[in-house]
Fold this protein.
Amino acid sequence: MKSFAIHPVDQTIKPSILAKIDNLNKPKGSLGRLEELALQICLIQQTLEPSLAHPCHLLLGGDHGIEREGVSVSPREVTWQQMINFTHGGGGVNMFCRQHGFKLRIVDVGVDYDFTGIDGIINRKIARGTKNFLYEAAMTEAEFDRAIQIGCDLVDDCIAEGCRVLSIGEMGIANTSPSSIWMHLFTGVPLQECIGAGAGLDTPGIRHKYEVLSKALSNYQVTTPNQAPITPLAYFGGYEMVAAIGAMLKAAEKHLVILVDGFIMTACALAAIQLYSAAQDYMIFAHCGDESGHKRMLDAMGANALLHLGLRLGEGTGALCAFPIVDSAVRMMNEMNNFENANITKYF
């Protein structure tokens, strides 16, 4: 696997950041979570004047072999249908990108469909969906490395345009299944507590999903005992999910602010942190969604989500919804006056 130069944020500048925050013309600590965000972003960028220039959103698409086992209420073709819908501007992700000024890149990393002749989709297809991990590894190690590199290259393209903040979303029917398994493996939470309704499974459907994933996990543990963290990423992951991991790691290496979306993207963030623990310093967890297990996973990471809106759409929509809060934290640092300049008595 490609290596990354990811280090914990340098704390040397922290006293200066806190001094600036505390001298803004407001009671100390009165802007609460915004002050915490401002500190984190300033540490990421190593500046007292942070920037969220040229925000970019990656929408990564891929299909999953495990979908063949009936673990999702949505049929496989919804992946490619939605990808095409995104090119027409008709998705939730399109609306929020327009609203908040994000440049949207729609990327086919492994959708089971031929998009030839369709404008607006970047072709990075590795294969037409992963293999069925109930019976075999979802992808080879070579495919895993290729997906990581795809994520890296996409972030490099964003950085070349001046990007300082990145959000990532996904489109892939059944991708809550590998997310649940990663959560179980990396947090130790019982598998049953990691599995939810996904796009809308009923109680029997959730039970079936658990049985399928439990059997897949048993098969994996028999065939690949005592392996390093990279192995379950390749064995269970989706191409779009591994590309997201690569994008997160490259973004952390380059000191970008990373907005982490819902259950699937949080699972990808968790996986990225297994590989490079310092990557978490660069992540802002945007929201806690309705998918069962999401809060448990955030808790395991010590992450406190910005929003609790009951979202479970995916596509990165929760990350985009949280952007105005992050923007407010940056504006606080750059636009608020301080006590001295405003001729206000500092009373603490």
